Automatic annotation (TrEMBL):
Name of the protein in question: Uncharacterized protein
Transmembrane intervals: 157-180, 192-214
Organism: Haptolina ericina
Keywords: Membrane, Transmembrane, Transmembrane helix
Length: 242
């Protein structure tokens, strides 16, 4: 034990808890998988705590929630691909940046296993489930706990809504200032103004039909780009690849 701890780097720092799950583990060997999504790992490393339990149910997971989070913020062993994860420890998983996935064998007690992680493990899923048994079958949690609202970064809704209201107010003020001048212009050139405004309105309707409604009906068919804005432009203008 002492030699193993000496050879492995130990790290202790405050981290955010995002997820915990409890699993029925009748076998003793499992596999934890982390994959790149879109060419990158969601995070180059992640903390993980394993805890043996006698039962696999929601009450058991809730009863050890605080202990698991505390362990997640304690001293963790730096662990790399292929190294075994055993219950009763916190691991700082380091993912292989040159590999499309990183695998960690997991030891279990043959009954139940609770897992606490720094990130939601599905963030690291591309083509394979994060936990599998020795035969390659997915192992799903019996119960899960996600981060409480207090641990989730607050979204500044007030600032965004306030800024939107301010922009709308200034825009409306501009319209009010334009009314006297537009009234005079329309009274002097009524037919020309009506024709011009009708042309603009027709253009808006046609643009909405071609750039939004018609394109959405194709369920975002990608022909030459991965970005929605570029594909929308190509579709709306009927541009050719040649």
């Amino acid at each position: 034990m002492s030699m193993y701890l000496f050879a492995s780097a130990t790290i202790s720092q405050a981290v955010n808890f995002e997820w915990a799950g409890i699993f029925s583990t009748p076998r003793t060997e499992y596999l934890w998988t982390a994959q790149k999504v879109g060419g990158l790992y969601a995070d180059p490393r992640m903390r993980l705590v394993l805890r043996e339990t006698a039962d696999a149910d929601a009450d058991t997971l809730s009863s050890i929630r605080d202990e698991g989070i505390a362990a997640l913020n304690g001293t963790c062993i730096e662990t790399r691909s292929g190294e075994v994860l055993a219950p009763g420890r916190c691991y700082d998983l380091v993912f292989s940046v040159h590999m499309w996935q990183t695998l960690f064998p997991v030891q279990a007690n043959g009954v139940a296993l609770a897992i606490f992680t720094q990130h939601v493990p599905t963030e690291f899923e591309s083509s394979a489930h994060y936990l599998k048994d020795a035969d390659g079958y997915d192992v799903e949690p019996v119960s899960e706990i996600f981060a409480s609202p207090s641990t989730i970064k607050a979204v500044p809704w007030g600032t965004g809504i306030g800024a939107a209201c301010l922009v709308n107010l200034l825009t409306f003020a501009g319209v009010l200032f334009l009314v006297p001048g537009m009234r005079s212009l329309v009274s002097k050139n009524e037919r020309l103004c009506h024709a011009t405004m009708s042309a603009f309105a027709a253009g808006c309707l046609l643009a909405a039909a071609f750039y939004l409604l018609l394109f959405e009906s194709t369920h975002l068919i990608a022909t030459f780009s991965n970005t929605e804005s570029a594909i929308t432009f190509r579709w709306g203008t009927m541009a050719s690849d040649k």
